[in-house]
Amino acid sequence: MRSPPRGLAIDISSSVRRLNVSRALVRRAATATLRADRVKDALLSITFVSRGTISAMNRRYLGHHGATDVISFGLGRVGRRGAVVGDVYICAEVARDNARRQGISAGEELLRLVVHGTLHVLGYDHPSGATRTTSRMWRKQERILARVL
Predict the structure, then answer these.
(1) Dihedral sign, CA of 87, 116, 31, 26?
(2) Where do the structural domains in the chain lie, given as residue ranges?
(3) Which residues contact 133 (CB under 8 A, 6 or more apart)?
(4) Which of 6, 55, 113, 140 is 20 to 30 A away from residue 134, measured at CA?
(5) What is the pLDDT of residues 46-76, one digit of tens each?
(6) Class for domain 8-148, per CATH?
(7) What is the pTM of this model?
């Protein structure tokens, strides 16, 4: 039996027309996040979806109503020292709305969500509410994002 490939395998797909960010930058953000956690082997899927798709996923998998910006599924490691495996789903439309409210570019917000979702795959979490942006995860996210931008 052959051993699985080593390294960072990042698959990027989109069902939406306009992303406001290049696939190369998306890959760079995900790679920077994995490397910041010293991950050497990963199988990561990043998919940009519509508002309707993310709403349905939010309801089905999280029991929440309405659209959200990012949903992540960390599927764990393959074996004790194996690859990190996970999926990240990002709604570009919600990201653009968030960016407009925050006065930043849609591209920056999409990259923030790539980092954010990848950190969730790695097992990071944050509180809800006002303390979210002061959490350890958020601070790590912003440090990684600053290196990518």
Answers:
(1) positive
(2) 8-148
(3) none
(4) 55
(5) 999 999 999 999 999 999 999 999 999 998 7
(6) alpha beta
(7) 0.92
